[in-house]
User: Which sequence fits this backbone?
């Protein structure tokens, strides 16, 4: 399967703290994408990192990619209550549709 | 506004009934996708279409059918053969085959 597996399954932090989520995958990829899903809503694309990139930033988000270990991490700095959501990684091989793991459920306590 | 719309937001199905979920996009995207999400789980791919009049089965296509007669529309029918249809259904589209844009979802419940 080309889907990513997120770790941890659940994460609870205080507002202002940083949140780190990890993703592992099994096949060679073109890029890896991170999505956020608020409860009962559709997914929203956060950031895409290509296979030849090692790190990418977007606002309070920092994504790293290690293709030798087939892993990625998503760091959210200075978290806010509004960051409470599920986060999914999606490795993209270019051959088919994206597939998603079970996600990391992040709870940010105010 | 550009985007993807799904209707209805909630749908109730009786035993033995076929129901159709609507998905429309005005993003001029070639590719469209249907996913199923069960509580606390990730998304599983049902069907996808990379171009009009063509579609492929995903990982859990049994009990579902689709059509792609127009670029803007990709309706999903949940047939009576799908014995456990209760789930949250998400439609998505993509232009270059990479980033996907999702609709708000349809929650299907069985009466």
Assistant:
């Amino acid at each position: 399967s080309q889907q990513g597996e997120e770790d941890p399954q659940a994460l609870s932090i205080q507002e202002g703290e940083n949140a780190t989520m990890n993703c592992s995958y099994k096949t060679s990829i073109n890029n890896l994408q991170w999505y956020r899903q608020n409860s009962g809503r559709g997914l929203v694309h956060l950031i895409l990192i290509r296979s030849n990139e090692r790190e990418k930033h977007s606002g309070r988000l920092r994504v790293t990619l290690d293709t030798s270990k087939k892993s990625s991490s998503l760091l959210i700095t200075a978290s806010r209550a509004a960051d409470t959501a599920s986060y999914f990684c999606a490795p993209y091989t270019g051959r088919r549709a994206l597939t998603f793991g079970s996600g990391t459920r992040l709870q940010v306590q105010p | 506004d550009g985007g993807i719309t799904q209707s209805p937001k909630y749908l109730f199905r009786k035993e033995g009934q076929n129901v159709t979920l609507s998905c429309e996009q005005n993003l001029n995207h070639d590719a469209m996708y249907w996913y199923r999400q069960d509580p606390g789980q990730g998304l599983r791919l049902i069907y996808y279409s990379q171009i009009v009049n063509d579609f492929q089965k995903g990982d859990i296509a049994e009990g579902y059918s689709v059509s792609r007669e127009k670029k803007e529309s990709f309706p999903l029918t949940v047939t009576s053969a799908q014995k456990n249809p209760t789930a949250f259904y998400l439609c998505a589209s993509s232009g270059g085959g990479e980033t996907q844009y999702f609709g708000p979802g349809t929650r299907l419940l069985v009466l």
Remarks:
- The radius of gyration of chain B is 13 Å.
- Chain B touches chain A at residues 4, 31, 33, 35, 40-45, 48, 58-59, 88, 90, 92, 97-105, 107 (CB under 8 Å).
- The CA atoms of residues 85 and 108 of chain B lie 7 Å apart.
